[in-house]
Amino acid sequence: MSAESDISSHLLEPPEPGDERNAFIKLDPPGFFIRHPPKPHLLESFITPDELLFQTIHMGAAVVDQSKWMLVVDGLVQKPFAINLEALKRLPCRTITSLHECYGSPLKPATTALWRIGNVQWTGVPLNLLLGIARPLSEASYVWSEGLDCGEFAGVESDRYQKDLPMEKAMSDEVLLAFEMNGKPLSQKRGGPVRLVVPGWFGTNSTKWISRITLQEHRATGPFTTRFYNEPDPSGPKGAMRPVWSVEPNSMIVKPRPDEKLTSLEVRVEGWAWSSRNDNTVEVSFDDGQSWMGAKVEPRVDFSWQKFSFVTALDSGNYKVMAKATSRDGLSQPLSGRRNHCHSVAFRVTGDAVDAIQ
C-alpha cells in the first residue's frame, strides 16, 4: 500500500454541515479569561513550562467530547474529507520549537509593551499534509480555521472563533495541527484535543479547539478577522490597516533583575530576542539608546526565541540597560510607543571600579 493510500484509508466522508460541532459539550470556564505571564526576569528557561506560560481565552474554554471530535477539511478543494482524533494521531507528525506570543488586547492601541511571551515545543500533524490530500483548487487563497468555542467577546456575539491564513503560510512546513505541548497531551485550556499552531505568528492565529479547515477565495468574515486583530499599517497609506499576523522583532531582559544590587565586578546582561522572520541581532545600551553595543546571540532553533548575553565592567553607581533586537531584514524595535518597544531595566552596581574586561 502506498503512503498516500494508507493515509486515505484513515479519512471519513464529510459530515452534514455543522455536525463537527457536536463534539462541543460546554464552556468551562465561560467568558473571557487571561492569565498574565510572570515578570520577564522569571522566564529564565529556554522552554517555558505550562505554569509560566500566559493564557488568553476570548469567549470561554471549550470542553470537547474526544470520541466525537473530528476535523473537517472542505471549501475550494477537490477532495473534501473529515478525520477523527485517533486517525489524525496515526499520521506523520513533527515537533516544532516556537515562540508563542500574545499580541495584546485588540480593544486598545498597540502602544504598551506586555511581554506576553513564551517558548514551547508543539507536536502535531503538518497542516500542509492534510491540505495536500484535499487538493486545493487554484482559486483558493485563504485557509479559514474554526474553533468549537463560541459566545461573546467585548460585547460582540460569535457562534465560533474563526481566523484565516494566506495559502503561502498555511502550506509552510511549520504550521501544525498540534495535540501535544512540551511533550504532554494538549490540555483543555490550551485548546485540546487539537489546536492550530502557526509558528512565527501571533497566538490569535493559532485557533484552539479546532474543528474545521475551509479553503476560500477571500479572508474570513468573522469578528476576529474583521473587527478585532487588525492594526495600522506603517508601510501603507494613512488609515490603511493590516492583519495581526507575523511577529515583529522584540526582546526582553532577564538579567539583571529590576532594581537589583550587583556586587560582582562584572555585569552580565541576559535575555531573549525573537521575531517571525529569521535570526536576530541584539544590541544593548547603557545611555538611553544614544550608543549601542552588540550582544552575543545564540542560534535560533526552528522558530524559537534566542538567548542573548553581554558582559561588561562598570563603575559603582546607578544604571539602566536597554536591549534592542533587529531582524536580518533590517526591522528593529522602536525605542518607545509601540507594543514591541525596547525593554529597559534599572540596577545598581555596588562594587569598586574595575578595569574594562579584555
CATH superfamily of the largest domain: Oxidoreductase, molybdopterin-binding domain
Uncertain segments of ≥5 residues (pLDDT<50)? Answer: 353-358
Instruction: Compute the number of structural domains.
Output: 2
Major sheet strand order: 6-5-16-9-12
CATH class of the largest domain equals Alpha Beta
Average pLDDT figure: 94
Number of helices: 5
Keywords: Metal-binding, Molybdenum, Oxidoreductase
Cofactor: Mo-molybdopterin
GO molecular function, one term: sulfite oxidase activity
Pfam family, one: Mo-co_dimer
Description:
One of its GO terms (biological process) is sulfur compound metabolic process. It holds the Pfam family Oxidored_molyb. This is Sulfite oxidase. Residues 59-222 form the Oxidoreductase molybdopterin-binding domain. By secondary structure, the protein is mostly beta strands. It has two domains: 3-243, Oxidoreductase, molybdopterin-binding domain (Sulfite Oxidase, Chain A, domain 2), CATH 3.90.420.10; 250-349, Immunoglobulin-like. Helices cover 8% and strands 39% of the residues. The chain has helices spanning 3-8, 85-90, 127-134, 167-170, 223-226, and strands at residues 24-30, 33-35, 55-57, 60-64, 70-75, 81-84, 94-101, 117-126, 142-147, 151-153, 156-158, 162-166, 176-181, 184-185, 195-197, 210-216, 230-232, 241-243, 250-255, 260-262, 266-274, 280-285, 293-294, 296-297, 306-313, 317-327, 343-349. The strands form eight sheets. The chain has a five-stranded mixed β-sheet. Strands 7, 8, 13, 14 and 15 form a five-stranded antiparallel β-sheet that branches. A five-stranded mixed β-sheet has the order 20-27-26-22-23, with no helix packed on it.
